Amino acid sequence: MIEAPILIIGCPRSGTTLLQYCLSVHPEVWHLRAESHAILEGPFHPARSGYESNRVTAEALTEGQSEALRARFYAAAMNLSRVVSDPARLLGAETPVARLFSRLSAAALGRLSRVAKPARIRFVEKTPKNTLRVPMLARLFPDARFLWLRRRAEPNIRSLVAGWRAGPPLGRFWRPRFATYPVAGELRLRDYRGRWWKFALVPGWRDLRGRDVADVATWQYYQCNRFARADLAAIERERVLSVQFEEFIDEPVEYMRQILEWAGLPPSHAVDAFVRRLPRVNQTSSRPARGAAGASHDAEVAAALERLPAVRELERELTAR
Known about the structure:
Shape: globular
Structural class: alpha/beta
Protein backbone atom coordinates (compact mmCIF):
# COMPACT_ATOMS: atom_id res chain seq x y z
CA MET A 1 0.00 0.00 0.00
CA ILE A 2 1.15 3.52 -0.83
CA GLU A 3 0.71 5.94 2.05
CA ALA A 4 0.62 9.74 1.68
CA PRO A 5 2.35 9.84 -1.72
CA ILE A 6 4.14 13.02 -2.70
CA LEU A 7 2.88 14.05 -6.14
CA ILE A 8 5.04 16.68 -7.84
CA ILE A 9 2.95 18.98 -10.02
CA GLY A 10 4.35 21.49 -12.47
CA CYS A 11 4.44 22.68 -16.05
CA PRO A 12 6.84 20.70 -18.26
CA ARG A 13 10.37 22.15 -18.09
CA SER A 14 9.70 23.85 -14.75
CA GLY A 15 12.24 21.76 -12.82
CA THR A 16 10.03 18.88 -11.69
CA THR A 17 12.58 16.23 -12.68
CA LEU A 18 15.23 17.82 -10.49
CA LEU A 19 12.86 18.02 -7.53
CA GLN A 20 11.89 14.38 -7.98
CA TYR A 21 15.55 13.35 -7.96
CA CYS A 22 16.09 15.26 -4.72
CA LEU A 23 13.31 13.25 -3.06
CA SER A 24 14.18 9.95 -4.74
CA VAL A 25 17.56 9.71 -2.99
CA HIS A 26 15.83 9.75 0.41
CA PRO A 27 16.23 6.19 1.79
CA GLU A 28 12.56 5.98 2.83
CA VAL A 29 11.09 7.16 -0.47
CA TRP A 30 10.06 4.85 -3.32
CA HIS A 31 9.63 6.05 -6.89
CA LEU A 32 9.10 4.91 -10.48
CA ARG A 33 11.95 4.23 -12.91
CA ALA A 34 10.57 6.99 -15.16
CA GLU A 35 7.26 8.85 -15.43
CA SER A 36 3.79 7.33 -15.06
CA HIS A 37 2.70 7.30 -18.72
CA ALA A 38 2.65 3.50 -18.93
CA ILE A 39 0.34 3.32 -15.93
CA LEU A 40 -2.06 6.23 -16.40
CA GLU A 41 -2.34 6.26 -20.17
CA GLY A 42 -3.96 2.85 -20.15
CA PRO A 43 -7.30 4.19 -18.95
CA PHE A 44 -6.62 7.86 -19.68
CA HIS A 45 -4.85 8.00 -23.03
CA PRO A 46 -6.10 11.11 -24.89
CA ALA A 47 -6.78 9.00 -27.99
CA ARG A 48 -9.89 7.79 -26.15
CA SER A 49 -11.31 11.32 -26.40
CA GLY A 50 -10.08 12.14 -29.90
CA TYR A 51 -6.93 13.72 -28.50
CA GLU A 52 -8.80 16.52 -26.77
CA SER A 53 -6.13 16.87 -24.06
CA ASN A 54 -4.46 15.21 -21.07
CA ARG A 55 -7.12 16.67 -18.77
CA VAL A 56 -8.70 14.06 -16.47
CA THR A 57 -11.36 14.90 -13.88
CA ALA A 58 -12.29 13.00 -10.74
CA GLU A 59 -15.50 11.73 -12.35
CA ALA A 60 -13.48 9.87 -15.00
CA LEU A 61 -12.03 7.52 -12.37
CA THR A 62 -14.06 4.47 -11.39
CA GLU A 63 -13.60 2.49 -8.19
CA GLY A 64 -12.32 -0.51 -10.11
CA GLN A 65 -9.77 1.65 -11.89
CA SER A 66 -8.64 3.13 -8.57
CA GLU A 67 -7.80 -0.25 -7.11
CA ALA A 68 -6.01 -1.40 -10.25
CA LEU A 69 -3.99 1.81 -10.61
CA ARG A 70 -2.92 1.87 -6.96
CA ALA A 71 -1.77 -1.73 -7.31
CA ARG A 72 0.23 -0.90 -10.45
CA PHE A 73 1.92 2.09 -8.82
CA TYR A 74 2.87 -0.02 -5.81
CA ALA A 75 4.17 -2.88 -7.96
CA ALA A 76 6.29 -0.55 -10.14
CA ALA A 77 7.78 1.45 -7.27
CA MET A 78 11.50 0.97 -6.60
CA ASN A 79 13.93 2.21 -3.98
CA LEU A 80 17.50 2.37 -5.27
CA SER A 81 18.80 3.22 -1.79
CA ARG A 82 18.12 -0.40 -0.83
CA VAL A 83 20.61 -1.78 -3.35
CA VAL A 84 23.22 0.95 -3.99
CA SER A 85 25.07 3.14 -1.52
CA ASP A 86 24.76 6.27 -3.66
CA PRO A 87 21.67 6.25 -5.92
CA ALA A 88 22.51 9.80 -6.99
CA ARG A 89 25.08 8.32 -9.40
CA LEU A 90 22.20 7.06 -11.54
CA LEU A 91 20.45 10.43 -11.63
CA GLY A 92 21.09 13.55 -13.64
CA ALA A 93 22.95 12.04 -16.62
CA GLU A 94 23.52 14.74 -19.23
CA THR A 95 24.40 12.98 -22.49
CA PRO A 96 22.08 10.64 -24.47
CA VAL A 97 24.38 7.64 -23.97
CA ALA A 98 24.72 8.34 -20.25
CA ARG A 99 20.93 8.69 -19.93
CA LEU A 100 20.42 5.35 -21.67
CA PHE A 101 22.96 3.64 -19.42
CA SER A 102 21.34 5.16 -16.32
CA ARG A 103 17.89 3.98 -17.36
CA LEU A 104 19.05 0.45 -18.01
CA SER A 105 20.97 0.32 -14.74
CA ALA A 106 18.07 1.77 -12.76
CA ALA A 107 15.68 -0.76 -14.29
CA ALA A 108 17.89 -3.69 -13.30
CA LEU A 109 18.61 -2.39 -9.81
CA GLY A 110 14.98 -1.44 -9.36
CA ARG A 111 13.95 -5.06 -9.77
CA LEU A 112 16.38 -6.04 -7.01
CA SER A 113 15.06 -3.31 -4.73
CA ARG A 114 11.56 -4.76 -4.90
CA VAL A 115 12.61 -8.00 -3.19
CA ALA A 116 10.91 -8.07 0.21
CA LYS A 117 9.19 -4.75 -0.45
CA PRO A 118 7.41 -3.42 2.67
CA ALA A 119 3.63 -3.64 2.70
CA ARG A 120 3.41 0.13 3.24
CA ILE A 121 5.64 2.61 1.44
CA ARG A 122 6.12 6.34 0.99
CA PHE A 123 6.20 7.26 -2.68
CA VAL A 124 7.09 10.22 -4.89
CA GLU A 125 5.79 10.64 -8.43
CA LYS A 126 6.51 13.21 -11.11
CA THR A 127 4.82 13.40 -14.49
CA PRO A 128 4.22 16.93 -15.83
CA LYS A 129 1.02 15.81 -17.63
CA ASN A 130 -0.39 15.13 -14.17
CA THR A 131 -0.65 18.87 -13.70
CA LEU A 132 -3.84 18.47 -15.75
CA ARG A 133 -5.01 15.43 -13.74
CA VAL A 134 -5.03 16.74 -10.17
CA PRO A 135 -8.75 16.04 -9.48
CA MET A 136 -8.35 12.42 -10.59
CA LEU A 137 -5.14 11.98 -8.59
CA ALA A 138 -6.77 13.45 -5.48
CA ARG A 139 -9.48 10.82 -5.77
CA LEU A 140 -7.00 8.04 -6.57
CA PHE A 141 -4.83 8.91 -3.54
CA PRO A 142 -7.09 10.61 -0.95
CA ASP A 143 -4.11 11.16 1.40
CA ALA A 144 -1.74 12.50 -1.30
CA ARG A 145 0.44 15.54 -0.75
CA PHE A 146 0.83 17.82 -3.75
CA LEU A 147 4.13 19.61 -4.27
CA TRP A 148 3.59 22.34 -6.87
CA LEU A 149 6.74 23.66 -8.53
CA ARG A 150 6.35 26.96 -10.36
CA ARG A 151 8.82 28.69 -12.63
CA ARG A 152 8.92 32.17 -14.11
CA ALA A 153 7.17 32.37 -17.45
CA GLU A 154 9.96 33.44 -19.81
CA PRO A 155 12.65 30.88 -18.87
CA ASN A 156 10.05 28.11 -18.63
CA ILE A 157 8.63 28.93 -22.06
CA ARG A 158 12.10 29.28 -23.61
CA SER A 159 12.93 25.80 -22.33
CA LEU A 160 9.70 24.45 -23.81
CA VAL A 161 10.56 26.01 -27.18
CA ALA A 162 14.02 24.43 -27.06
CA GLY A 163 12.43 21.09 -26.27
CA TRP A 164 10.03 21.39 -29.20
CA ARG A 165 13.05 21.86 -31.47
CA ALA A 166 15.16 19.10 -29.94
CA GLY A 167 15.81 16.23 -32.31
CA PRO A 168 16.06 12.48 -31.75
CA PRO A 169 18.45 11.61 -28.89
CA LEU A 170 20.34 8.81 -30.66
CA GLY A 171 19.85 9.14 -34.39
CA ARG A 172 17.08 9.70 -36.89
CA PHE A 173 15.42 6.33 -36.27
CA TRP A 174 14.49 7.34 -32.72
CA ARG A 175 11.55 9.44 -31.70
CA PRO A 176 12.39 13.09 -31.06
CA ARG A 177 12.99 13.98 -27.41
CA PHE A 178 9.87 14.86 -25.43
CA ALA A 179 7.56 13.47 -28.16
CA THR A 180 4.12 12.40 -26.93
CA TYR A 181 1.35 12.07 -29.57
CA PRO A 182 1.39 12.15 -33.42
CA VAL A 183 -1.01 15.08 -33.74
CA ALA A 184 1.15 18.19 -34.19
CA GLY A 185 0.72 18.12 -37.96
CA GLU A 186 -2.90 19.16 -37.52
CA LEU A 187 -1.78 22.63 -36.51
CA ARG A 188 0.35 23.41 -39.56
CA LEU A 189 2.64 25.54 -37.43
CA ARG A 190 4.74 28.12 -39.24
CA ASP A 191 8.06 26.93 -37.78
CA TYR A 192 7.52 23.23 -36.96
CA ARG A 193 6.81 20.49 -39.49
CA GLY A 194 7.06 17.43 -37.26
CA ARG A 195 4.12 15.14 -36.55
CA TRP A 196 4.95 14.67 -32.87
CA TRP A 197 3.38 16.82 -30.21
CA LYS A 198 5.82 17.66 -27.42
CA PHE A 199 5.09 17.69 -23.68
CA ALA A 200 1.59 17.98 -22.18
CA LEU A 201 -1.41 18.04 -24.51
CA VAL A 202 -3.27 21.00 -23.04
CA PRO A 203 -6.93 21.93 -23.50
CA GLY A 204 -7.50 24.26 -26.44
CA TRP A 205 -4.40 23.16 -28.35
CA ARG A 206 -6.28 22.95 -31.65
CA ASP A 207 -6.99 26.69 -31.46
CA LEU A 208 -3.28 27.30 -32.19
CA ARG A 209 -3.53 26.30 -35.85
CA GLY A 210 -1.12 28.28 -38.03
CA ARG A 211 0.74 29.82 -35.10
CA ASP A 212 4.38 29.48 -33.95
CA VAL A 213 6.06 27.02 -31.59
CA ALA A 214 6.50 29.88 -29.13
CA ASP A 215 2.71 30.37 -29.09
CA VAL A 216 2.23 26.66 -28.39
CA ALA A 217 4.76 26.73 -25.55
CA THR A 218 3.20 29.86 -24.06
CA TRP A 219 -0.25 28.26 -24.16
CA GLN A 220 1.15 25.11 -22.51
CA TYR A 221 2.64 27.20 -19.69
CA TYR A 222 -0.59 29.13 -19.22
CA GLN A 223 -2.93 26.13 -19.22
CA CYS A 224 -0.79 23.93 -16.98
CA ASN A 225 -0.42 26.61 -14.32
CA ARG A 226 -4.02 27.80 -14.63
CA PHE A 227 -5.44 24.33 -14.07
CA ALA A 228 -2.97 23.61 -11.27
CA ARG A 229 -3.94 26.79 -9.44
CA ALA A 230 -7.68 26.06 -9.67
CA ASP A 231 -7.47 22.35 -8.87
CA LEU A 232 -5.07 22.64 -5.95
CA ALA A 233 -7.22 25.36 -4.38
CA ALA A 234 -9.90 22.70 -3.83
CA ILE A 235 -7.54 20.53 -1.74
CA GLU A 236 -6.87 20.98 1.97
CA ARG A 237 -4.19 23.63 2.42
CA GLU A 238 -1.90 21.46 4.55
CA ARG A 239 -1.70 18.88 1.76
CA VAL A 240 -0.36 21.40 -0.79
CA LEU A 241 3.06 23.05 -0.83
CA SER A 242 4.01 25.60 -3.51
CA VAL A 243 7.68 26.13 -4.34
CA GLN A 244 9.14 28.76 -6.65
CA PHE A 245 11.84 27.16 -8.80
CA GLU A 246 14.15 30.19 -8.78
CA GLU A 247 14.04 30.40 -4.99
CA PHE A 248 14.62 26.66 -4.66
CA ILE A 249 17.76 26.86 -6.82
CA ASP A 250 19.12 29.70 -4.69
CA GLU A 251 18.67 27.81 -1.39
CA PRO A 252 18.22 24.12 -2.27
CA VAL A 253 19.37 22.61 1.03
CA GLU A 254 17.10 24.80 3.14
CA TYR A 255 14.14 24.28 0.81
CA MET A 256 14.59 20.51 0.75
CA ARG A 257 14.65 20.40 4.54
CA GLN A 258 11.37 22.33 4.59
CA ILE A 259 9.89 19.97 1.99
CA LEU A 260 10.88 16.90 3.99
CA GLU A 261 9.33 18.35 7.14
CA TRP A 262 6.10 19.16 5.27
CA ALA A 263 6.02 15.65 3.80
CA GLY A 264 6.52 14.03 7.20
CA LEU A 265 9.90 12.55 6.26
CA PRO A 266 12.97 12.57 8.53
CA PRO A 267 16.05 14.62 7.62
CA SER A 268 18.43 12.83 5.25
CA HIS A 269 22.19 13.22 4.78
CA ALA A 270 21.80 11.68 1.32
CA VAL A 271 19.34 14.38 0.29
CA ASP A 272 21.53 17.14 1.72
CA ALA A 273 24.56 15.82 -0.15
CA PHE A 274 22.64 15.50 -3.41
CA VAL A 275 21.14 18.99 -3.41
CA ARG A 276 24.54 20.52 -2.68
CA ARG A 277 25.69 19.25 -6.08
CA LEU A 278 22.50 19.62 -8.07
CA PRO A 279 22.88 18.11 -11.55
CA ARG A 280 21.64 19.61 -14.78
CA VAL A 281 18.86 17.43 -16.15
CA ASN A 282 16.88 17.27 -19.39
CA GLN A 283 19.10 19.95 -20.89
CA THR A 284 18.85 21.18 -24.46
CA SER A 285 21.34 23.44 -26.16
CA SER A 286 22.10 26.56 -24.13
CA ARG A 287 22.62 28.59 -27.29
CA PRO A 288 19.49 30.39 -28.49
CA ALA A 289 18.18 28.58 -31.55
CA ARG A 290 17.27 30.66 -34.60
CA GLY A 291 13.91 30.44 -36.33
CA ALA A 292 13.08 31.05 -39.99
CA ALA A 293 13.14 34.80 -39.45
CA GLY A 294 16.41 34.66 -37.52
CA ALA A 295 14.85 35.58 -34.18
CA SER A 296 16.25 34.11 -30.97
CA HIS A 297 14.20 32.25 -28.42
CA ASP A 298 14.11 35.45 -26.35
CA ALA A 299 12.47 37.46 -29.12
CA GLU A 300 10.07 34.65 -30.05
CA VAL A 301 8.92 34.18 -26.48
CA ALA A 302 8.59 37.93 -25.87
CA ALA A 303 6.36 38.22 -28.94
CA ALA A 304 4.25 35.23 -27.88
CA LEU A 305 3.78 36.71 -24.42
CA GLU A 306 2.60 39.95 -26.00
CA ARG A 307 -0.04 37.93 -27.88
CA LEU A 308 -1.23 36.26 -24.66
CA PRO A 309 -1.10 38.91 -21.91
CA ALA A 310 -3.05 36.65 -19.53
CA VAL A 311 0.22 34.81 -18.87
CA ARG A 312 1.78 37.86 -17.25
CA GLU A 313 -1.26 38.35 -15.05
CA LEU A 314 -1.19 34.71 -13.98
CA GLU A 315 2.55 34.88 -13.31
CA ARG A 316 2.09 37.92 -11.08
CA GLU A 317 -0.60 36.13 -9.10
CA LEU A 318 1.53 33.03 -8.64
CA THR A 319 4.75 34.81 -7.65
CA ALA A 320 2.85 37.04 -5.20
CA ARG A 321 1.91 34.03 -3.05
